Amino acid sequence: MKPILDAVKTRLYATSALTSALGSRIYLDQAPPNAAFPLLVYGTQASATVTPHFGGQNRYDLTVNFLFVYSNAGADAIYTATSALETALSTTMSATGFDRVSAVKVSATVPSFDDDAWSMTETYRLTAFDT
Fold this sequence. Notes:
- By secondary structure, the protein is α+β, with helices and mostly antiparallel strands.
- The protein has helices at residues 2-13, 16-22, 75-88, and strands at residues 26-28, 39-52, 58-71, 98-108, 112-114, 117-130.
- Strands 1, 2, 3, 4, 5 and 6 form a six-stranded mixed β-sheet that branches.
- It is elongated.
């Protein structure tokens, strides 16, 4: 499933609306201690399943959470970033060993304020088939 997450990383870094806002502060699974804001952490803590299909193909479904964290002045900017994420994931991605990776948003939250920062989580289901 690493190639699927690599495809997501490539897409995130290729999206200028995200990199102009976040720079290189896009992290898989966790941000480093004392990372500067704003930042994005994405990961598959939610779920990952493999379903066998006809012809020996497998379907891979990953539920991926995207957590945006902005400073206390970034309440409006967080909406712009989540919109950029939705645009970035609206088209299929290429991943080694898979025919394509498709993303569908399954849930979104509203910004919440905690510990002097705004955060917002978007959840997507990524689907891919063996080639």
